[in-house]
Specification:
Layout lengths: L1 H36 L14 H23 L1 H4 L3 E5 L8 E5 L5 E3 L6 E4 L6 E3 L4 H4 L9 H7 L8 E5 L15 H9 L7 E4 L9 H18 L8 E4 L5 H13 L4 E5 L5 E8 L7
Parallel strand pairs: 2-6, 2-8, 6-7, 8-9
Antiparallel strand pairs: 1-10, 3-4, 4-5, 9-10
Length: about 280
């Protein structure tokens, strides 16, 4: 509800600025024009000796014009059509994370989520300590290690984690949705006790951008409802898991919600953060 009020509030301010700029410039222009009509020189003292009834048109018109321009400038990123991907500055921890999850390339060997075995290539067994710093660097090519690296900058402040899983692409093939309960159980070993972890209720086709956008929207809205007063810069989208179309969908979603940022964990374990910035369209040629 608060988010809807903010949206309508920004629309009202935009309409107000559209009215203030021409009205203010009109009153200001009329006040100046009337002095020229009186045959006075712009640089003369008499030109600026306004009668009191003319002063209010001059001053109020100028104030309305300046205020309207300032409001329009403040809202520019909400409505400019051209969006540019830019690296986000700083490392502000988020209160809510929305993560796309890839199908694991391993299986857990017991019910403690401390031993896992890689399923592809060499049958390597990896021991986990449930210490976040250590397990983010433990050797082994298990792909959910990237999830640990994704939550690491946020763990001290994180209140909610929302997971989105995929459908299987081939008949009889399981998608990551089938593994989300295991993923939640694993992440609970590293997150604070008061952090709520849940997942999107339906498997999502990670090759369908519209389906991913809908899932992202539901989970972001859920996080906003659960954390009253949360700001957009306290919500982080993570597109490390899943296919490249998931990354495209996450970037597209932030064009609709410019206050949000998203992150990606590269192969070296470094977190790359981005946001979408509205800018003037570059000239071609």
């Amino acid at each position: 509800m608060n988010k809807e009020l903010k949206i309508w509030g920004k629309r009202f301010l935009l309409i107000l600025s559209v009215l203030m700029i021409p009205v203010g410039s009109g009153w200001f222009g009329d006040a100046i024009g009337e002095r020229f009509n009186d045959g006075l020189n712009f640089f003369s003292h008499d030109f600026w000796a306004f009668e009191i009834w003319r002063w209010w048109k001059f001053v109020l018109g100028l104030l309305l014009f300046i205020l309207g321009v300032m409001i329009a400038y403040w809202l520019r990123r909400e409505y400019l059509p051209v969006q540019v991907l830019a690296r986000a500055a700083g490392e502000r921890p988020a209160q809510a994370l929305v993560l796309t999850v890839s199908q694991p390339n391993f299986r857990f060997k017991d019910g403690t989520y401390s031993r896992l075995e890689l399923m592809h290539g060499q049958r390597e067994v990896i021991e986990l300590s449930h210490d976040l710093e250590r397990d983010c660097t433990v050797p082994g090519q298990w792909n959910w290690q990237q999830l640990l690296r994704a939550i690491r900058p946020h763990v001290d402040r994180l209140k909610r984690a929302h997971l989105i899983g995929s459908i299987g692409r081939q008949p009889g093939q399981a998608g990551s949705f089938e593994s989300l309960e295991d993923c939640m159980a694993l992440l609970k070993k590293y997150l604070p006790e008061d952090c709520v972890i849940e997942h999107h209720k339906k498997a999502v086709d990670f090759e369908d951008i519209d389906a991913i956008l809908m899932a992202l929207d539901k989970e972001v809205r859920k996080a906003r409802r659960s954390l009253s007063g949360i700001k957009d810069n306290d919500i982080m989208l993570d597109c490390t898991g899943g296919q490249k179309t998931a990354s495209i969908a996450v970037a597209l979603y932030t064009t609709r919600h410019p206050g949000l940022q998203f992150q990606y964990v590269d192969n070296g374990g470094r977190i790359q953060r981005f946001n979408v910035v509205a800018e003037k369209e570059p000239e071609v040629g």
